[in-house]
Amino acid sequence: MSEPRLSMAIPSKGRLREPTWALLEASGVAPQLPGERVLQTYCRNANIDLLFVRADDIPEYVQDGVVDCGVTGLDLVAESGCAVDTLLQLDFGFCALQVAVPLEDGTDSIDGLGGRRVATSHPRIAAAALAARGIEVELITVGGSVEITPRLGLSDAIIDLVSTGSTLRTNGLRSLGTIFESEAAVIGPRLGDVTGDLRTLITMLQAVVEARKSRYLLFNVPANALDDVIAVLPSAGSPSVVQLADQSVVAVQTVVPSSTIWQLLPELELRGASAILTLPIERMVR
Ligand code: AMP
């Protein structure tokens, strides 16, 4: 009998499709591109079947056990109300559910919206967030194009997904604040076992997610400036220090968060470091 295969639902379209596919490729499972309109494929290097499903249907597929796990947005998970667990946050698909009003509206905080009409396509998250603040509004649920509802006279305010804020600005709206932060994640059934192939997959995806957030850093520094340089390194562990043939200089190697590089390199140079190199990391298991 052949071994049972792990099944994973991935977004069939929309902004999460491409980054999800790229992550699977980077993880080494070798997902095989299906023909056009084919909704199922497999991985050459792993015991995994992939199903292309709409991102907003994925929480339900996972909850109902149609698939073993899936990739979708945490906003869609919360909005679905499905009983699933987040197994791994993926560090892409960032967006926030924000409350916004027309520029000319005098309201200056979310708490000032009591009694007004608020349009959203995320009624479950909106209702929970507003109730938690003790604000009662008239919630109007719309399927899309939430941002034009104030101009159409359908609402006084909106609650909608924002990533850069440019759609709000284009539509003459001003944010009053965020009620929910979202990113893409791998989800599994509530209290499900993360063992066997599922555990292997999560470990390999996490290795890529962690690696993308980090850079390998190498540089030389005069031995007498070493302590000074080590003091500014944001590395988690102790750096490797290698004595060079010229005994007055050492080579330092370490891993640092990518987000710190732009500030760190000038600091290192100021403290006497030279031949500074940063390299991408393919995978990282801590
Ligand atoms: P889509 O299929 O393109 O409509 O997007 C599905 C998911 O992408 C959303 O539910 C969010 O989790 C995520 N997303 C990331 N950035 C944005 C954004 N600027 N607007 C809407 N959704 C976003």
Enumerate the strands of the largest sheet in spatial order, edge to edge or round the barrel.
Answer: 2-3-1-4-11-5
Q: Could you tell me the mean pLDDT? A: 95
Distance between the termini: 36 Å
Strand percent estimate? 25-35%
Class derived from helix and strand content: alpha/beta
Biggest β-sheet strands, sense, barrel: 6 strands, mixed
Order of helices and strands: EHEEHEHEEEHEEHEEHEHEEHE
Radius of gyration: 24 Å
- The number of distinct helices, counting runs of at least 4 residues, comes to 8
Number of strands: 15
Tertiary shape: flat
Any low-confidence stretches, pLDDT <50, length ≥5? none
Bound ligands, each once = adenosine monophosphate
Residue share in helices? 25-40%
Looking at this protein, list some descriptive labels.
286 residues; five-stranded mixed β-sheet; binds adenosine monophosphate; six-stranded mixed β-sheet; 8 helices
Overview of this structure, please?
- This protein has 286 residues and is α/β, with parallel strands linked by helices.
- The protein has helices at residues 17-27, 58-63, 74-80, 123-132, 166-170, 196-212, 226-232, 261-270, and strands at residues 6-11, 40-42, 48-53, 69-73, 84-89, 95-102, 117-120, 138-141, 157-162, 173-182, 184-189, 214-222, 240-243, 249-257, 274-280.
- A six-stranded mixed β-sheet has the order 2-3-1-4-11-5. Strands 8-7-9-6-10 form a five-stranded mixed β-sheet. Strands 13-14-12-15 form a four-stranded antiparallel β-sheet.
- The longest helix is centred in the C-terminal third of the chain and has 17 residues, at 196-212.
- Bound molecules: adenosine monophosphate (AMP).
- Residues 14-16, 55, 73, 75-76, 93, 95, 161, 163, 182 line the site of adenosine monophosphate (AMP).
